[in-house]
């Protein structure tokens, strides 16, 4: 009860603060060299035509192609990643207790820049790095080793309630989105307190249900990064933790195992990125002003409710699996389009953090006064990457959503090919609308 009251007090204090204006400081340096309306019309047309092509041609997918046997991840690499994850976690704790509050706080740097963005992009475009970077699993394993050394009797893990599915992770994901978009201005001590509380909660759940079970169902970062990893060209061999195998890019979207919780999480992820971009535009500020945390929370909840509601409505028409396979590439495209420059620019603050680890005025390596810059990024290249990420994500989603919908209809046998195409029209409309909206937000004055 004491911990619950403490957490409630922190939450009320945050709600009383003014909401942050620009959570991720989207850069206004990178603007289109062509009229925005041209890009919007071109993007909407490209997505619409890609969907039409997929539907008319009725594209299907053959069996998944494996390009090689599983390969063990080198032990040295695993050890380095585990060390990095554990050191990052300990650094956040130390700075939260002893450090000052600046723009180079490692709590924000590791949580939002390198974690929420960097690890997410690596998980989506490369391999499941969180499997070894995860500090919570490392702490659990260290605790288990200590318990065995002390001969503490092991307690059998409880059976995880099947009805819970991945909903605990979805609830936690929503809380993190709120923390990111509403309480982003909270200082390092507040964020370190949140990380500490989440660590205790996660370790308790791992002890209750087992590390692997909780990682697959309840640990927010593991579940989210695993979802993103459906697109990646490298994936874990089922039943193995240290063995990867190569597969065609995006083929994981066609695999089974989709749940309604996955669709809701993808909707929350997509909606949160859109909200972050839109809330920093002049148009948004003219309409909503600069609300405090409580009204900002209401606006965020309403916005996310619309996005998630649309995703669930589409899922009733084309199925859970097809909706998940169709929307996940969109979320990944938005993530890259909105936050890649944020990662490349704000990530430079590690030079400041290393020189002044606790942000108390030290300057061990002479880089404490370093200021991040994006002048080395060609604006036309950045805008081109943003455009390609958004439109490319929608094109991959159109293909994956149709393939899965057609496959599910074939198994059921109750729908004709024409029925399958007709039922995907709402998904196409949602995709075109989202494409136009996110590119519009990227092209606005911030």
Question: Could you characterize the architecture of this molecule?
Answer:
It is a single chain. With 446 residues, this protein is mainly alpha-helical. Helices cover 67% and strands 2% of the residues. Strands 1-3-2 form a 3-stranded antiparallel β-sheet, with no helix packed on it. The radius of gyration is 22 Å and the shape is globular. It starts with a helix and ends with a helix.
Short description:
With 446 residues, the protein is an all-alpha fold. The chain is built from 18 helices and three strands.
Highlighted features:
single chain; mainly alpha; 3-stranded antiparallel β-sheet; globular; about 450 residues; 18 helices
Largest sheet, order of strands side by side?
1-3-2
What is the H/E string?
HHEHHHHHHHHEEHHHHHHHH
- Specify the helix fraction band: 55-70%
Q: Please state roughly what percent of the residues sit in beta strands, choosing from under 5%, 5-15%, 15-25%, 25-35%, 35-45% or over 45%.
A: under 5%
**Number of strand elements:** 3
Number of helical stretches of at least 4 residues: 18
Task: Kindly report the oligomeric state of this protein.
Answer: single chain
* SS class: mainly alpha
Broad shape: globular
How many strands, what sense, and barrel or not for the largest sheet? 3 strands, antiparallel
Rounded to an integer in angstroms, the radius of gyration calculated over CA atoms is: 22 Å
Q: Give the termini separation.
A: 43 Å
Detail the poorly predicted runs.
Answer: 1-23
Mean pLDDT: 83
